[in-house]
Structures are given as structure tokens and as C-alpha cells.
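Researcher: Here's my situation. A collaborator sent me these components and asked whether they could plausibly form a single complex. I don't have experimental data yet, so a predicted model of the whole assembly would be a useful starting point for our discussion.
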Amino acid sequence: MTDRPLIFVTNDDGIHAKGLRELVEVMQLFGDVVVIAPEVAMSGMSNAITADYPLRANKLSEESGITVYKCNGTPVDCVKLGFNHLLDRMPDFVVSGINHGANSSISVIYSGTMGAAIEGCLHGVPSIGFSLLDFTPDADFSKAKIYVARIFQAVMENGLPRFSCLNVNIPTGSPKGIKFCRQARGKWVEEFDKRTDPHNRNYFWLAGSFHNYEEEARDTDLYALERNYVSVVPVKVDMTCYDSLEELKNWKF
Amino acid sequence: MTDRPLIFVTNDDGIHAKGLRELVEVMQLFGDVVVIAPEVAMSGMSNAITADYPLRANKLSEESGITVYKCNGTPVDCVKLGFNHLLDRMPDFVVSGINHGANSSISVIYSGTMGAAIEGCLHGVPSIGFSLLDFTPDADFSKAKIYVARIFQAVMENGLPRFSCLNVNIPTGSPKGIKFCRQARGKWVEEFDKRTDPHNRNYFWLAGSFHNYEEEARDTDLYALERNYVSVVPVKVDMTCYDSLEELKNWKF
């Protein structure tokens, strides 16, 4: 037995991603680590769950306080399966990432990295999703890891409000510091690359660029990231639009 | 040319689902209909997007104001591909469903039905996800359709606040009326059925029951549904936890 915290590590880039190894390297400083990660890349899988085929998980290794499983499901499946079957006890923290690529602004709703963090906090476990603004497979996480450690330590000390998690995005290079922000309003535009196959049939690759609806707002994650700060957005699982709820109650049917 | 509104219909149960046909039947009363729906069932796909393989869409039919495409992607892919390539103009409304099964409370984050509605409103189009509390393939939608029509008509008349959509859940039987609600706090528990295959390897089926964290609260969707009312939750795409944002800014690093 140990009194070190139990830290659940997962991601959406899959078990072989560099960002996952880097995250484990930081987390083993703070506690015992269990990795349960998708066996293949699951980017853009959001909060998806798998009900149409059975899930499997295989233990790949167990040594010096680090246990590693791969799973054939989504990031959320990994968290659910871990909590319900693979772990001996509920973890003290869930950390997801380090994602290869940004999950700022509206990308929070598409992100498998954040899907896993959201799932963690839904079960009452303090959870954090970490993303680096570099989607290349061999991205340099060395500076990012310093911020991962600082933010994780702050969460250990302060805890997190129940049913909320953190969406942390880290710029490349040398960040200037950490800013707590709200999610910027934005959307992806021009989202497909249309091509024709050798049989003259059309197909479409998802692509696109990001449009920030509020470039001037200074309290958003995009504003912080563009100025080379690490952005931290507290995320909650209640999607109710309270601003309009009272007004809607006046509708006549 | 026509001045009837253009209504985009999709779902997550797939192009062959009864609930989709029933929704089209209601929508053709109000406008011209374009269906772009997943070619296979995509339940639980949340806001997932497809970046790892190319998307295809095939027009299946076009007659009397109803055009139908199937797509090999997720519900969100269907919306994005429709908006960006398949439609001649942006639709006036996006409606998703009628889902076979509930999407109340926290299920909003896992639901492909709601993923599509959320994607619609993100692009500024008034969007609604409809779900019936009966997951059977041959569910009886006859009473539900009356409420679908009433709620759609109210949205046509009143519009919706920008960047928000409606999550409508309809009880079986004869509902007593319509209640605007907030999303109940809850989670899925005991989520896997563990089995052993003929080769003595474990596998897991996602299953489980729902736990309502706040049974007594009278303003939630679950409360309304349990009392046989149609629940309507306005949903927004901003997941920022504003309640904790100011407090977090006091953290020292």
C-alpha cells in the first residue's frame, strides 16, 4: 500500500502518442499512475461512447508505480471502464493528454482529450485535459511539461469545484505565464476538402480554419493563447442555457 | 423557387430509423426538407467528427420537396457536410431525431442526436433535438409527433437565442404538456456487463442505470419527464464554468 495519490492518465491520440508518454513522465512525480488509453488514435471523438461492440482492455505493463492498459474504445470508454472494472479504487485525479494540437474555444466539444476529462469530473474526480498547440507527432513538450506540473500541483492543493474540470491549452515556445479564461466563441469554417476518386466519385476530407467570433474580447482562451499565455478554462457538464430559460417559459403553445 | 423554409433533418439512429421517417413526416408540413443522415446507427457519438477517413454522401431520392442523402460519417459530419457542400443555401432550421430513447440530463453530452443539433446552432441556425423515451426500433411516435409539431411551430414563431438549441425529450403515452427545464445533474452508474469469450478473454458491454443526483429538484428535465411532461432544455455551446472562474483566478502558482 502507498499513500501516494492514484492518477488516471488517458488521451485521445492513442497509447503510442508521445504526448501521453510525456504526461506520464510528469505524473509519476506526483503519484502512482494507471494509464488506460485507446489502442488507436481517437481524435475528435468528443464524449462518444461505444454501445455497438464489446470493449476489451489489455494490461501491457506494470512496473515502478506505472500500470498501462490499452483499450479498443473511445477516451470516455477508457475512463468508464477504468472506474468500473480495471481500477481497484477510484483514482484521485484524471489527467488527459498531452494532446497533440489545440483544444481551445469550441474545440472543447469535439475533443476526445476533453471528453475523457469531462467524464472524470462527472464522477466527482478532479480532472484536467492538457493540450499543446502543436499537432505534429514529434512535438516538443519540454516547456509544456513545466506548466503541466505547475497546474497539476495547484489542483492537488486547491481541489476543483465538483462536476467541473480544467481545459488547459499550452502555446509552443516559452509561455509567459498562466491565465484563467472563458471559452471563446468561435467555429470552424470551410470545413471540407472535396476530391474525386479514380472512379469519379466525390469524397470529402474534413479540414478547415478557425473563426474567432470575438477577437477583441480579452478574457477568452484564444486571446490568452495568441499572446503566448497558457489558457485554463474551467469546464462544467451542465449545458443548460440559463440566460434564455426564463424567457422561454413565456412561450405560448 | 419556394418561400417555404428549408429544414435540415438528421439523426443518430441512422437513415433507416423509424424516428427519422416520422420526423420528416412532421417537417414536410412546415417546409422543404433535406435529410442528411448517417448510413449506419451512430448512437452515443456525441459531437464526434471524422478526420481519419474521407466522408462520402449519396443522394438517395429527391421528390415532392424532400431530398434524402446518406452519409458515412457521424451526425455532426452530416451537418458540416450539408452546410459546406450539399445544400445550395444555409437551412432555416436543423432538426435531429426523433431519437429512439431518452437524451435527458447528462445524456446530452453523449448523444449524437444532440451533437447534430448543437452543431447546427453553432453555425447560427435554430436547431432542435427530439427524443422519445422509447428505444425500441418500432416505437410508437404518434403522440410524440404532435409535440414535435407544436414545439417546432413555436421555434418558427419565436426564434431561438443565437448559439443555443433545444433538447426536447418526450415521454411515452399521452404527455400532459410541455415544461421548460434545466438539465438535471446525474450520471450513469454500473456501466459494464463483463463477459468471457470462448477463448477465456474478458470483454465488456456498455450497460448501466441512471442515477439522478437531485431527485427533489422540481425544475429539471428528469422531474418533468417522470411526471409525464415533455421536457425542453435550452442548450448552449459555452461550457465555461463561470461559477468558479473568478475564484480560480486567485490561485497562486
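Model: Some features of this prediction you could bring to your collaborator: Chain A touches chain B through 75 residues (CB under 8 Å). The mean pLDDT of chain A is 95.
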